[in-house]
Amino acid sequence: MKSLVAALCLSLFTHYAQAVCDKNADKLIKAYPEHLVACENNAIVWRNGERQLYDDGKQKTFEQLLAQADIEDMFAFPYPVGVNSYNPPALNVDAGRIRNEEFFKRMYGATKSDVQDHLTTIKWLPKSDGETLKIQKTNDVAIKLEQVSKELDELPAELKKYVINTSGTFNWRVISGTDRLSNHSFAVAIDINTKYADYWQWAKGAYQYKNSIPHQIVEIFEKHGFIWGGKWYHYDTMHFEYRPELLI
Ligand SMILES: [Zn+2]
Prior knowledge:
Blueprint lengths: L1 H18 L3 H9 L4 E5 L2 E4 L4 E3 L8 H6 L33 H8 L3 H5 L2 E5 L8 E5 L4 H12 L4 H4 L28 E3 L23 H9 L2 E3 L10 E4 L6
Antiparallel strand pairs: 1-2, 2-3, 4-5, 6-8, 7-8
The chain binds zinc ion.
């Protein structure tokens, strides 16, 4: 009887496990072809043959999503695009802020020195005498950011002022007030000019969404695979990070 129950459980589990490689898993494979080959039996298969659990099947609170995200949870909130995507986000709707740290460590480097081995430099807004930035080579992130930079460089001065003095790309550090690594650690994020930025952790008093970054800038980044922290309930309007899976 015991073995019958075990067999039944196993078959149910297998059935469940096979069902969860969903359309979001397909987006990941499409977004990161350099690293991922497939989703099979509830596991993301990496190009080196290693497998990583896709969906742990657990129901999570918002805080648990932030702290214990599996890969599938990274799609918990769809990233909004289009004209209505600049409306203040609903409570806790943070598309892209839910991250499985192991996923990014495997892709970009598990330690500061691992990541440093995958960096290159680009000239930011070269026509406008911008600075030199360190950025991740993996997944062509540096090439994508260079494309962003070229387009930003063509903007009129009143728009360029938001992006010309950046506040950094690579910085191996945790997110303020947490023990979770920021995606700046993997050199796939950039903060634009803090002078015009709003960040929920800086705000005083009752919660109020704030932004002064023009949508033309956001759309250039999104076109090349970078999401914007200004579309988060926990807004961070200087922050862009390379997350093409959320823009497919
Ligand atoms: Zn940032």
